[in-house]
Amino acid sequence: MHPPPPLTALNDLPAQLATAGWAVLDAGSLAALCQLAVPALLAWQPHWPELPPDPHLRDGGRYRKRRHGCFRIDAAGVQPVPHRPHWQPVEYNALHGGFERWFEPLPAALVADPAWAQLLQGLARVADGVRGPAAGAAWFVEAHPFRIDTEGGIGRPTPEGAHRDGVDLVAVIIVSRHNVKGGETRVFDARGPQGVRFTLREPFSALLLDDERVIHETTPIQPVDAAQPAWRDTLVLTFRRGGFQGPEKR
Questions:
Q1: What is the CA radius of gyration of the chain?
Q2: pLDDT digits over 27-39, tens only?
Q3: What's the Cα-to-Cα distance from 239 to each of 138, 140, 195, 247, rounded to whole Å?
Q4: pTM higher than 0.90, yes or no?
Q5: How far apart are the C-alpha atoms of 95 and 92, rounded to whole Å?
Q6: What residue ranges do the domains of the chain occupy?
Q7: Tag placement on the chain: N or C end, fewer CB within 10 Å?
Q8: Strands 214-218, 169-178: parallel, antiparallel or unpaired by DSSP?
Q9: Per-residue DSSP letter, 111
């Protein structure tokens, strides 16, 4: 049995991120951070079974479904930007880096939900705390809803292995787990061997990462009962100053 995550109290979040570079919030703390009620987050779960297949997996797998959306957050609030590709340099993603990946956009109903903007703004305040507020600076946010299932017997949440994302703040939010074993989260100091290992289970609990200081991965998943469907649903949000990643930013 993998250990549960060491939870951080909301009042201790700035200190935990400053000292360790990562923190885990339970669902109640994430909701309070974003001035939400937990049921407003749980109401999004029906969007995950509708995710389309990832057309870009280079390991030959069929285990990943996803969508993608981009936003800008500044003093005027949260603004969706025109649909655009996801791009990472090979230095951060050796398997899928270096080329533009187009995915289907986020569901309009999700983006229009007032709770969506509250979630992004709450996490942008955390990013301000990590990097320091900058007058007039915007956060460029990419949203990735994922479903990893066990089609073929195994699913890989991070097929690229332990990695950084090339951003300022990463939020990995568990949406649901069903009939799954494995999926252990591992976070390591980018400068040395120190690390922690735990399993996120509670829907809408969140792992927050200072991407400059830590690397992270999640181990493969397998079904508990091979005769039944099995999946791990997550929402990954990345916050970056200075613009979205793209070939022109190199």
A1: 17
A2: 999 999 999 999 9
A3: 10, 6, 23, 18
A4: yes
A5: 9
A6: 16-51+64-244
A7: N
A8: unpaired
A9: H
